[in-house]
Sequence to fold (946 residues):
Amino acid sequence: MIEVRRPLLEVCGIKIHFPSQQNKGEIVKAVDGVSLELRHSEILGLVGESGCGKSTLARSILNLVPPTAGTVYLNGESIQTMSRSELKKARPAIQMIFQDPHASLNPRMTVFKTLAEPMLAHKLAAKETVKQAVVELMEKVGLAPRFMQKYPHEFSGGQRQRIAIARALALKPRLIIADEPVSALDVSVQAQILNLLAKLCAEERLSMIFITHDLSVVRHIAQRVAVMYLGRVVEEGTTHDVLKNPQHPYTQALISAVPVPDPIEERNRQRIILHGDPPSPLNPPAGCSFHPRCPIAEAQCQQQEPKLGNFHDNHRASCLLLQKKFVE
Amino acid sequence: MPNTSESTYEVEQGQSLWKDAFRRLKKNKLALFGACFLIFLTGISLITPLIAPYEYDAPDYRLGASGPSAEHWFGTDLIGRDLFTRILYGGRISLMVGFVATAVSLLVGVLYGATAGFLGGRTDSVMMRIVDIMYALPFTIFVIILMVFLGRNIILLFLAIGAVEWLTMARIVRSQILSLKEKEFVEAAISMGLSRFQILTRHLIPNTLGPVIVYTTLTIPNVMLLEAFLSFLGLGVQPPMSSWGLLIHDGADSMLESPWLLIYPSIALSLTLFSLNFLGDGLRDALDPRVAKD
Amino acid sequence: MMSLLTVDNLATHFHTRAGIVRAVDGVSYSLEKGQTLGIVGESGSGKSVSCYSLLGLIPMPPGRIESGSAYFDGVDLLNASKDELRKIRGQRISMIFQDPMTALNPYMTIGAQLMEPLLLHRGLSKEAAAKRSIDMLEAVGIQDAEQRMNAHPHQFSGGMRQRVVIAMALITEPEILIADEPTTALDVTIQAQILELIKSLQEKNGMAVILITHDLGVIAGICDSVAVMYAGRLVEQATASSLFHSPRHPYTHALMKSLPSMNTDGKELYSIPGMPPDLTKPIEGCSFSARCEHAIEACRDDIHLHTIMLNHATACIRAQKGEL
Fold:
């Protein structure tokens, strides 16, 4: 008998709207109805450009930003309805790694203090045992333990990111949300950190939501991918399906925009260049939010909002023109 | 990165941002001068009763106002009191007012500002509106009213001055906290499940200390000037006690006949204010995170 | 035929408290009219400093140009007087940076900033300058250019700001455009637009471009020739096709291997072992040898850039001997 486990994380219809700071009276729809699932030991890539709401969505999963509508279920329990003490107990299960290695560590705390703090706060270690625990954490992420009394500014970007990863692992989470963890790093360091993350996820049997704008990175580390545009998921499926056979025009343009490091291929390939700037979440266009920049938009795209339809074997995309192709 | 599990290794000491800032401060000659002068002045103030050549309220009517001489280095005032002694004791009062009133403003300002900034939302708005209103109150009238109703009292002077200066401190701390709150290490602390108190004391306040320290050093001169002003108006320190403000007031009266009565206290006050400003500027440059070793 | 720009043995060092940082340590290259040269390297490679040195943008102290020359139309930029440099900088050689907000004055309108160099240096009338500015804005793809002249930078999005910066840089019709990571801070779809724009403007104006970047994909798209820098030195120089087809330096090779896009999914990415060298310590021989899997004893001897094939030079002695 196959036991169907409930997904580790279920994001159901999350909307995050907040009043605009600059244009009084208007609403910024940072996230506008996103539903996702994450299974145990699965890595989901969340891809999109600036303004698509991926970082805001991540923060709502951690309850750093409360959603305006929708619920997040962790192991079947709704995060939104938890009391303060229940939330505190649930927090260790989801940890986050941030993009900017400079800003994600307290500049006035040593590595030791940074790593010991969560373990002591949640009583995963006592004062006597915490030093050994810190040593183990540092070794796990490839940092020499003799650096534990140093301060963040004494490390390179890559090393700081390792400290951040160690901190995320300190509470033995089930799920890690990595928000553009390698975007601020040099190419050669990126490879090191990506390898480290992949290894840790496999060893510790972690799930991960890997947020990035870089499709090549997603191809390398994630099993499934969700593409976001202007607060909504426009395409979702296995990494292989979505990248090899993109259905949504935005995904196609996104893939096309990634420069290929091969001059012959790069100069001769057919490119889809989108016109205009990404519209702001302040004034999303009516109907399909992508239609003003879509190379194949038709009249109906201005009026009707497309839904995420199942194209083929859990590969979903939201496009009116594709809905005709969808398997009923 | 080497991934060795040696059980014996030499743990290397880190160099905190404070050490780095201190090193930079030492290079600033003006700031060093300011710091040395202040330490010297504080030292003298502490041992004034031991080193003052005369009593501060011992008149010598035979002398009257006389210029600098071997017995009276800075001369004497209208009723023959030794000016040097008066300046020493006056310095004590002025410095005390400076430090204590600033400490009061620091304590109240930091707590108030940190709370407003951290809690945010409506609480923050209300708290800052109160600050705005208090800013608008004319300080002098406020102090005069206090003095009139509660009598002239040096403690009251401290509190009155502190009550005014904390406003700016609160604003500074609040804006620091507001910008720090957005930083990712604070988000990390929240997602770790730390209590709000822990986040405030361990992550937020330590990172506001830079601007707070600088502003504190620059508040002291303000406070001293304020005290001088009040005393000049007759609202501050009462005779026979003196402060530099009072001495300058008295000196101004007899400026033409006995210029030394104005010159020496003014020099003392000016030197102190310069020192504080040099030190404050030096601290600000030393603690500037953009210049920090990164 | 003389090159448009000839840089010879440029060395820029920073005299800091921690020691002398040899940010650029003997770099030579030349740029022809209408050519696009890509300078690729990671942070600390010296790619940006080498170009800032050309335009006198290095703070001195602590920086100092220790040696070298950079001839542009008979003028040695490295030893030119402030006046000579000012006539060239912003007019005949323009530069754009990664963050458009560093080039844009938030308090001036876009129009005023565009017209400024024309009014000051070219002595154009206000009407002529305004017309030229509007034309320029349209050329960089900004719609409603005439109205936009009165807008302020914060009213534009990131991509549009970079377009405005490009307009400002090109309004004086420079002969060389130096672009320092112009698209790194932009979304990938906007990056594609901006690179297309630079390419088309270059073709129209016949200007040369030096493109500084860490992104090999960007290089592949628009650069004719490429110079790879590591720890302040040039390690390989070739035409783009030659470089990608057969990289002849272990660092270039390693860089290409560690890119996620060139790897098949699931396999561990190749990562270059070790760390970049400490630039405050003088490096004996090849700066990459400490991390190179092909290093031999001879790598500690003096290293020079040598041409090994047509339009392809490398500083690796083993590649020069044909061993790699």
About this structure: Chain C touches chain A through 43 residues (CB under 8 Å). The mean pLDDT of chain C is 87.
